[in-house]
Design a protein that fits this description.
The chain is α/β, with parallel strands linked by helices. The chain has helices at about 10-25, 40-45, 55-60, 65-70, 75-85, 90-100, 115-125, 155-180, 195-200, 240-250, 265-280, 310-315, 325-335, 350-355, 370-385, 385-400, 405-419, and strands at about 1-5, 30-35, 50-55, 105-110, 130, 205, 225, 255, 285, 300-305, 320, 340. It has 17 helices and twelve strands. α5 runs parallel beside α8 (about 155-180) and α11 (about 265-280) crosses α15.
């Protein structure tokens, strides 16, 4: 088969889909990856065909306006900001996309599909599979991961999914409107594409582990939880020699990195991290990431890192501190060490609470409440709590025994045979 995978966002959003593409290629399929221009090298290293469908997300996230938006943590404000950015590029997306998928046999996409890809598949009568790394299907078992923790759950669980899906749809609807107009299609329903997808029995794959979040018992047979879609480091990747020397020079350090989550003062964020490590008496690896954390005065007990594959780095850490993105959370749990989550936005508080509920990390520390003292206390707990470390190690073993990519590839091939 010739398969187009459409994914956009940060590296944590896109990388699991690259892993799926690599697995599909290994199974003998031709894979075309459509994503933001930031990921040309990532996709190329996986041996996949790449086409850009948008501007640099890294550039956007490093803007002062976006950093202020993320630090505010208000998801509604973040969605409005996203809507403004996406609306400005809706016409370009609508003009480019149909030609990029016209010759494929199947489209695989997740959140990125709402902005026009679902409609293109409908117009061209192309088979479609949905794939997500966080739950978006309504369930009564828990509230939507995108709902603030302060809102009531229980009887409102299912309603919360409908509300958040509608908010996400409205934030990207301009792209869909432009696409359907260009293709001569009537406007999509105000409530979005999900009822149509359900009516057409479009399958849904979920890339998370049932050991972390059990599959809801009220989902129908269209919904499959495959476990995580991990992308390991390329075979020819080599770590910096001074990083290897640092790791060998002492006990396992604590990783601190907030990925794509920006800060209006990256130096202050790095200083807080250094203070926390000093208070906890731990060595550390601080990753600057897209957020740009940096500091000019770094002690010998800390290594400042631009980036390194989590699959290689995390197993060598004593604990990991991060923002709680779905992909980074998965990598920390797979490594079998305690995770300390500092949620900034979106689904990050949800994963932070799951980590705490599973007993494999301390209670999450919201970004607005982060201090060196609180972080040091959490690090000390993660290092010294033998029960927590044992549970984290056991969970890591169970996750490493799963092969989410192979499971997803098998399901994709089975679904395609029915079309």
């Amino acid at each position: 088969m010739k398969i187009a995978i459409v994914a956009s966002g940060t590296r944590g959003d896109v990388q699991p889909y690259v892993a799926l593409g690599k697995g599909l290629k290994a199974a003998g399929h031709t894979v075309r990856m459509l994503s933001n221009q930031d990921f040309d090298a990532l996709v190329g290293d996986a041996g996949l065909e790449f086409h850009s469908i948008g501007v640099s997300v890294e550039t956007l996230l490093q803007s002062d306006e976006w950093r202020a938006t993320v630090e505010g943590g208000n998801f509604l404000v973040i969605l409005l900001h996203m809507r403004r950015e996406l609306n400005s590029r809706a016409q370009e997306f609508a003009a480019r996309m149909p030609a990029l998928v016209a010759d494929v046999d199947l489209i695989l996409t997740g959140m990125a599909g709402m902005g026009g890809t679902f409609s293109i598949a409908e117009k061209l009568q192309l088979p479609l599979i949905q794939a997500y790394v966080l739950p978006i299907t309504p369930t009564g078992c828990f509230a939507s991961p995108l709902v603030p923790k302060s809102l009531p759950s229980g009887m409102f669980n299912r309603l919360s999914f409908h509300a958040m899906r509608q908010m996400m749809w409205q934030s990207v609807r301009a792209g869909d409107v432009a696409t359907r107009k260009l293709l001569g299609m009537p406007a999509a329903p105000f409530w979005g594409p999900y009822q149509s997808l359900k009516r057409k029995r479009v399958p849904v794959l979920y890339g998370f582990s049932q050991h972390v979040l059990p599959r809801p018992n009220d989902w129908d047979d269209l919904h499959h939880v495959t476990s995580y879609w991990f992308l390991d480091a390329p075979d020819d990747w080599q770590p910096p020699s001074d990083l290897v020397d640092f790791l060998r020079a002492g006990p396992p350090p604590v990783y601190i990195g907030f990925g794509s989550m920006g800060s209006r003062n990256p130096a202050a964020a790095a200083r807080l991290s250094l203070e926390a490590l000093a208070l906890a008496g731990q060595r550390g690896v601080i990753a600057s990431g897209w957020g740009g954390m940096h500091h000019t005065h770094v002690p010998d007990t800390v290594y400042m890192l631009r980036s390194a594959p989590h699959s290689w780095l995390f197993p060598q850490m004593a604990a990991v501190v991060h923002h709680g993105g779905a992909g980074t959370t998965a990598a920390g749990l797979r490594a079998g060490i305690p995770s300390i989550l500092v949620p900034h936005m979106g689904d990050q508080p949800f994963w932070g609470q799951r980590v705490a509920d599973l007993g494999v990390g301390p209670a999450p520390i919201p970004r607005k409440r982060l201090t060196a003292e609180r972080l040091a206390k959490a690090i000390t707990q993660a290092i010294s709590d033998t029960g927590m470390r044992r549970r984290a190690a056991d969970l890591g073993i169970r996750i490493r025994a799963e092969d989410g990519v192979a499971q997803a590839v098998s399901l994709i091939e089975r679904f395609s045979e029915r079309v």
